[in-house]
Write a structure and sequence with these properties.
With 149 residues, the chain is α+β, with helices and mostly antiparallel strands. It is built from five helices and four strands. A four-stranded antiparallel β-sheet has the order 1-2-3-4, with helices on both faces. The longest helix has 23 residues.
Length: 149
C-alpha cells in the first residue's frame, strides 16, 4: 500500500514530487511510477493495476512492468509495508531490458536525492524542483540507453 504519512506530495504536469520528512529525501516519480504508486491503495492487485493502466489510455504493460515500479517504490520507502522484491538476483539492466522490449510506454523511474539541511526550509522552492526535473531527465536518458544496449 502506498505510504501517506510523513510525505509532502506535489503533483506536476509530467511527474509527482514526493518529499519524505522522515529521511529528508526528495523523490521524483515519472508518470508510470506515479500511477502505480497511486494505485497501491490496498485493494488493487498487480493485475488490477495493469488493467487500470491500460484502460486509462497509458499504454499496454505487463505485470513485470508494474512489479518494477513496486520494487522501486519499496526501495525508496514509499510503500507502507515491506514487499519482497520481484526481481531479486537480476541486475537492473536485465530487468529494464526485458520490460523495455515488452512495453511501449515509459519505464517507471524514481529519481531520489537527499535534501541538504539548508534546503529543508525551502523544499518547495522553484530552484529545487528544477534540479529534481533535470536529475530525472538524466536518469530517463540513462534508462533509455540501457534498454537500447
Amino acid at each position: 500500500m502506498a505510504r501517506q504519512n510523513g510525505l509532502v506530495v506535489q503533483e506536476m504536469p509530467d511527474e509527482v514530487l514526493v518529499y519524505d520528512l522522515n529521511s529528508n529525501k526528495a523523490h521524483c516519480l515519472n508518470q508510470s511510477a506515479a500511477f502505480v504508486w497511486k494505485s497501491c491503495d490496498g485493494t488493487n492487485s498487480v493485475e488490477d493495476i495493469v488493467r487500470q493502466f491500460e484502460s486509462n489510455g497509458k499504454g499496454k504493460v505487463t505485470e513485470d512492468f508494474v512489479w518494477l515500479a513496486i520494487d522501486q517504490l519499496n526501495e525508496n520507502g514509499l510503500l507502507a509495508g515491506e514487499v519482497a522484491p520481484r526481481f531479486a538476483g537480476q541486475s537492473r539492466r536485465q530487468v529494464l531490458k526485458t520490460i523495455g522490449l515488452a512495453s511501449m510506454v515509459a519505464v517507471p523511474v524514481i529519481a531520489s536525492l537527499v535534501a541538504p539541511q539548508k534546503a529543508l526550509g525551502a523544499i518547495h522552492s522553484a530552484g529545487h524542483m528544477v534540479t529534481m526535473r533535470r536529475r530525472t531527465e538524466r536518469l530517463r536518458e540513462g534508462a533509455r540507453k540501457m534498454i537500447e544496449a
